[in-house]
Specification:
- Strands 1-2 form a two-stranded antiparallel sheet.
- It contains eight helices and two strands; from the N terminus they run H-E-E-H-H-H-H-H-H-H.
- By secondary structure, the chain is mainly α.
Length: 228
Amino acid sequence: MRYYDFVMAAFVAIILLSNVLGAGKVAQVWLPGVGQWPFGAGILFFPVSYVIGDVLTEVYGYARARRVIWAGTIAVLFMAFMSWVVVALPPAPGWNNQAAYQTIFGQVPRIVLASVCAFWAGEFVNSYVLARMKLLTQGRMLWARTIGSTIAGEGIDSLIFYPLAFLGAAGWTSELVLTVLFTQWALKVAWEVVLTPVTYAIVGFLKRREGIDVYDRGTNFTPFAARL
């Protein structure tokens, strides 16, 4: 397991950075025939966590992927708690950046709850589907497993996050929530398709260097466990 800890570190880092740097900014891009199209900046990097989740399950198996998902979940919860504490601390006299600091790092509890629940459920669905499909395909058609598991995992992620975070919120109609939900889901799945060659390269490298290729026969697929 020479690379397992590095893959875990990459997964947790992307989860944290996507929440800190990407979640709060709305960017826009010009699309031919559409014009300027706004999107959440976090979508550029958050789907990479699903690619890494695919790599973990494909190479190391569901049980080890489960430990990494729990590590990511605990890290996000601690980040939310730390952000709340640091923002709530009274600023020193003469330090005039409290408003900007709160804008960037202050988190709405409802959105934090939605983010954690959606991430946890989506990542476990992604890992479970990929592990099951690997058994069904006998290890063939990696592209179908990675894309299929992402369709399911990102679908659950979006179905939980957007209604829980924004349904009934000021400025968010039910129609807008559904539009954003399906748009973001489609874009995340498209990212998985685009990154398929990268996934193949990483999986091939790790299987050769680690000398393992785990099939989850007899695995207990409960998410509420830590045993390997």
